[in-house]
Amino acid sequence: MTRSDRVLADAEAVLRRHSERGQSLSTRARQRRNAGLMRKVKYAFWAIVAVLVAGTVAGFVTPLGTTGVMVALGVMVAAVLLIALMPTETRVRTEALAETELTALPLKTEIWLENQRKALPAPAVTLMDSIGVKLEALGPQLERLNPQEPAAQEVRKLLADHLPELVTGYQSIPESLRREERNGRVPEKQLIEGLSVIDAEIARMSETLASGDLDKLATQNRFLELKYQEAKELGE
User: What is the pTM of this model?
Assistant: First the structure.
């Protein structure tokens, strides 16, 4: 079995482990969408209440009449429609990751990954779930880290630079060529290998932060770059 085949097999096993260890990326994304839907329902309710209160107050001053009632109903309908058109699911632009505060970066990266789900092959989605679980654990750890420390810069480089470059590099390849060999490489397998390395690196970062060995975290990145450099060059 080749290294790529082993990575694919490992990726299939990751999702099974997640059912025991925690919620998947898609599960948490669904929870965020449900929470967004509930917010929209709440906004619509208060918008209707506000129009009713305003109409009642205005009615004490001047009778609304049929025209006034129709205007109030029109305002209610317009408000509800506007709220309904608001996006329920949060979107994160790729370039926004580089501008995100360190403590918010794991969550933003998780949302960004979920936004890419439909454009990635199944084994890559499985690895995205694994990365999402680790990002959830990494978030609270970063609250104790000074954003100016070299260790913090390495975390930012991995999440805001390396990971997006890997995924967008794959997406830039025409779909018909993603499983074809190019210069001795198969883009889909290179993507999966790169995500596997990043998945392992986030786990290592989390363990290192837990141990407090920040110097070790700050000096490990060169090894990471060498290890998945080929995968990062997918779009070149």
Answer: 0.62
